[in-house]
Design brief:
The complex is a heterodimer of chains A (226) and B (405).
Chain A: E1 4-17, E2 20-33, E3 37-42, H1 48-55, E4 63-68, E5 71-72, H2 78-88, E6 89-92, H3 104-114, H4 119-132, H5 148-160, E7 166-170, H6 178-195, E8 198-203, H7 206-210, E9 214-219, E10 222-225
Parallel strand pairs in A: 3-8, 3-9, 6-7, 7-8
Antiparallel strand pairs in A: 1-2, 1-4, 4-5, 9-10
Chain B: H1 3-10, H2 13-17, H3 19-57, E1 60-64, H4 72-82, E2 86-101, E3 104-113, H5 115-118, H6 122-125, E4 128-131, E5 141-146, H7 147-152, E6 160-168, E7 176-189, H8 194-197, E8 200-204, H9 205-211, E9 220-225, H10 231-242, E10 246-250, H11 256-294, H12 296-304, H13 309-348, H14 354-357, H15 368-395, H16 398-402
Parallel strand pairs in B: 3-8, 5-7
Antiparallel strand pairs in B: 1-9, 1-10, 2-3, 2-6, 2-9, 4-7, 5-8, 6-7
Helix pairs in contact in B: 1-13, 3-11, 3-13, 3-15, 4-10, 11-13, 11-15, 13-15
The chains are: A alpha/beta (226), B alpha+beta (405).
């Protein structure tokens, strides 16, 4: 039995734009092992975010397949994929995307409650996570009352609340100053090691990318070197 | 359905303070209020018409075909035995006659009923315009006049007049005599229906029988029931008990086509008003579309975190229904206030031309079934109006909304 957790086969993503066809990804093949920390690099418009979205089942490829432990994810319905994401995947975006009407604690507990966990249990789990990230004083603060770094840490806590197998991050430090950015970067590697997560990060920051043992470089929709 | 998520995210004070939401609720409220007023108006018109007919003719009226009834007591017993739903039976004598006063003459329908009961009869008490307090010094027979009869003859309470009825001469059958008696106005009534107000004079049965030389014969009976709506069924039973020598008519047979026309118009107006409400619900759709667009990134995040499409549909449908429920609530209250306003205004200004509508006024009347129809129709249209924006929200690609802050 292979240790492969996520793989793509000939993934192509194309957009139809005013009569012309724009291919963002062209037959991408990749394989990611369980517990690996992987970085996807490339210049703007290279298709790295699109690839991350396809790997994270937020988008579907125009052609090709995406496999999770050998299971073809492109065959699943939207609602089946929603449940799958909720249980197996965590996401951190460049912009924190916390819901402004919810407190930090409620934001973190959101995936657990969507997943069917009771209010008490999910809040307890969220509180533990916030504490482990040093945000126990911020539980009842709204996103507008938090600093940029704090918001991103809350977003990380939210991504971890369902104990995912894979953590996706799209430019997680791209919107932060250098100090805060480094704190967040360190946090990712610590979590990956502590929790045994598979970490897939998209960045165009070469310093951040250097820290990953495995880097995929995208150019014009294909990998140039692995 | 994630009710908690709806309560936390969409059901916010801030969202309801938004002008689009405010105007949506206002639109629904006005639509519902007009619907309520029109239903209450039609129901009120029907109820007033029904009660004015019943107060004069009874729930069921019984008469003998082509003849007077010589044995009233026996017939009354038969009527009472025919159904337990009968409250009381009252004999009446009726005679076309003329009222003469101050040199004026008017043709009237003189009705004789048991006078000892008249003062206590609720249906006449509530219709009193004015009544004589002390009749000790009056000479003649006391009578109750329809208000138009009194107006036409310029009669007030206490005034004396002559009652003239034609009668076939006993000496020679081909000649007509007249019987004359002195009467005075004991009270003036508003029967609620123009035809009754301009024609009916009520007096004691015995006096009418004497004047018309009817001996103890009566023309028929007014039957009162515990439940007026059961009149057709009870009328059938009475008809069965008395046989076909007797004519048995329930109140709904009088003006049957008018009642049918009003019921039909009410239905038509309900749908016309519903179209207005549909227009109001376009506002709800627009508000929800705006909300979907404004919350694009939030919808995307929630989808990324595992919220299913049907949950997104549920959230926005619920929001639309919340607007509908608020609109419905305020609309019902506004509608009721309009009804009270209409009723109060009628007391001061007679809005309805009596000659056209046969009634000078009517009180609005809102039935439970009307309210249920208004609520069901409003919520149904509301639900339909939420579907398009809710489906739009559920079909948004999660990716697009995540690109920007």
């Amino acid at each position: 039995m292979s240790n492969e957790i996520l793989a793509t086969k000939s993934v192509t993503k194309a957009y139809q734009m005013e009569g012309s066809r724009l291919e963002v990804l062209r037959g991408v093949d990749l394989s990611i092992m369980k517990g690996e920390a992987v970085c996807i690099m490339g210049s703007s418009g290279a298709g790295k975010s699109t690839l991350l979205h396809i790997l994270g089942t937020l988008d579907k490829p125009t052609l090709g397949k995406v496999y999770y432990q050998g299971e073809d994810l492109t065959r699943k319905s939207d609602d089946q994929l929603a449940s799958f994401r909720n249980k197996k995947m965590g996401f951190v975006f460049q912009f924190h995307h916390l819901l402004p009407e919810l407190t930090a604690l409620e934001n973190v507990s959101l995936p657990a409650r969507i997943g069917g966990l009771s209010k008490t249990e999910s809040l307890q789990k969220a509180a533990n996570l916030l504490k482990s990230l040093g945000l126990e004083q911020r539980e009842n603060h709204y996103p507008s009352e938090l600093s940029g770094g704090e918001r991103q840490r809350v977003a990380i806590a939210r991504a971890l609340v369902q104990d995912p197998e894979i953590l996706f991050a799209d430019e997680p430090s791209g919107n932060l100053d250098q100090d805060n950015g480094e704190v967040i970067q360190d946090l990712f590697f610590k979590l990956q090691q502590d929790l045994g997560l598979t970490l897939i990060v998209v960045t165009h920051d070469p310093e951040f990318a250097k820290r990953f043992p495995k880097i995929f470089r995208l150019k014009n929709g294909t990998f140039i070197k692995q | 359905m994630h009710l908690w998520l709806y309560r936390k995210v969409l059901f916010q004070k801030k969202a309801f303070a938004d002008p689009a939401t405010f105007f949506s609720i206002l639109g629904i409220s006005l639509g519902v209020a007009f619907l309520v007023v029109s239903m209450a108006g039609f129901s009120g018109f029907m109820v007033s018409l029904k009660s004015s007919i019943i107060d004069v003719t009874g729930d069921v009226s019984v008469s003998k075909r082509g003849a007077r009834i010589a044995d009233p007591a026996e017939v009354i017993q038969k009527i009472l035995d025919s159904s337990p739903e009968i409250k009381d039976v009252m004999s009446y004598a009726r005679k076309e006659g003329m009222v003469a006063s101050k040199g004026k003459l008017r043709i009237v329908l003189l009705q004789g009923i048991d006078w000892s009961n008249v003062a206590n009869m609720a249906e006449f008490k509530k219709r009193q315009v004015s009544v004589l307090e002390d009749s000790s010094e009056r000479i003649g027979t006391p009578a109750l006049l329809g208000k138009v009869v009194a107006q036409n003859l310029e009669l007030g309470v206490g005034d004396a007049f002559k009652m003239i009825v034609p009668k076939v001469s006993r000496a020679q059958a081909t000649e007509v005599d007249s019987g004359v008696d002195s009467y005075y106005v004991h009270g003036i009534l508003d029967f609620g229906k123009f035809e009754f107000n301009e024609r009916v004079v009520i007096a004691d049965l015995k006096k009418v029988q004497e004047l018309s030389e009817m001996d103890d014969q009566v023309n028929g009976f007014r039957v009162r029931l515990f439940d007026s709506d059961r009149a057709p069924q009870v009328a059938d039973k009475i008809q069965e008990a008395l046989g076909w020598d007797y004519s048995v008519r329930d109140w709904s047979m009088t003006n049957r086509s008018l009642f049918k026309a009003i019921a039909y118009e009410k239905r038509v107006l309900f749908f016309v008003m519903l179209i207005m409400l549909v227009a109001a619900f376009f506002n709800v759709s627009t508000t929800l579309f705006l909300s979907v667009l404004r919350r694009y990134s939030q919808i995307s995040v929630m989808r990324a975190l595992g919220l299913k499409r049907r949950d997104i549909i549920g959230l926005f449908c619920l929001h639309g229904l919340a607007l509908g429920v608020f609109g419905l609530f305020f609309g019902l209250i506004t509608g009721l206030l309009f009804c009270y306003g209409f009723d109060a205004l009628q007391l001061v200004y007679p809005i309805m031309p009596e000659e056209v509508y046969k009634m000078s006024s009517f009180a609005t009347h809102l039935t439970l079934i009307d309210i249920v129809w208004v609520i069901v129709a409003t919520l149904l249209i509301c639900f339909i109006s939420t579907l398009a924006p809710a489906f739009r929200g559920s079909r948004l690609s999660p990716v697009e909304g995540l690109k920007y802050e």
